[in-house]
Amino acid sequence: MTHSTMQSTLVATEAEKSGRWAGRNADKDQLRKEIWQALEESGMNVGPVWSRISNWVGADVAAKRLSELEIWRKADVIKCNPDPPQIPVRLRGLYDGKIILMPVPEFGTGDLPWVLLDPKELERQGVQFELAATSVGAVQVGQKMSFENLPKIDLAICGCVAVTQAGGRTGKGGGFADLELGLFRDLGKIDDTTPIVTTVHSSMVVEDGRLPVMEHDSLLNWIVTECDVIETQPSHPQPGGVHWDLVLPDQFESIWFLKELKEKILAAKAD
């Protein structure tokens, strides 16, 4: 291998570790790298770590802790991200008789961006909950839905890479969760009383100052780890709907339905 080839290989590796969406916020980029590195070095990861909502040892314990909270018991409809560490959350939801709403990973490429999992319907069809709880299985067996047709949400669960006790959060950097929650507010699917929750490894809880909060960032109300339950003290009010002026051009290009949905939302507000 030549020196130049070795250099390009190293650059590619560092690019992967920086994350697919690196460059939008340098502080968050650095924090994500530290979290991913620490998770890998500690051996607490389950499977790949970099540039994703990483899975971790104890995710099933955190899901059990979440299921014991009053916000869970009261919820009939739960929105949950499609990532591996939340498989136990989706599975518990189905066994507890909850309707689960899951986005197609990164909202898909042209089909309806959501799936609805109704445990009664899955049982009627003979579908195993363990299959439906995986992202691939959910897309195969769930009812496809648009943002507009989703039912009102009682509990919103987000995948995170780092969180703070002030309610700050960051995912893998693509901006999907904050955009999703903004759309929910615009469409009346959640309001200021809807709990926003995550399950994360305890090593992902960082000091408040490490995670800058932007005006469009939705804040967590609860953080559940493998060893603790944290009711946060949010430092800011929740944002309103989508801050369209902060949506990046690449988000409009990569999220196939976003331009049309923006037009519908703005037209409805103008009426």
Automatic annotation (TrEMBL):
Region (Disordered): 1-25
UniProt keywords, alphabetically: Ligase
Any one cellular-component term (Gene Ontology): cytoplasm
GO molecular function: ligase activity
Biased composition range(s): Basic and acidic residues: 14-25
Record InterPro entries: FTHF_cligase, FTHF_cligase-like_sf, NagB/RpiA_transferase-like
Biased composition (Polar residues): 1-11
Top-rank taxon: Bacteria
One Pfam family here: 5-FTHF_cyc-lig
Name the UniProt record assigns to this protein: 5-formyltetrahydrofolate cyclo-ligase
Native source species: Celeribacter baekdonensis
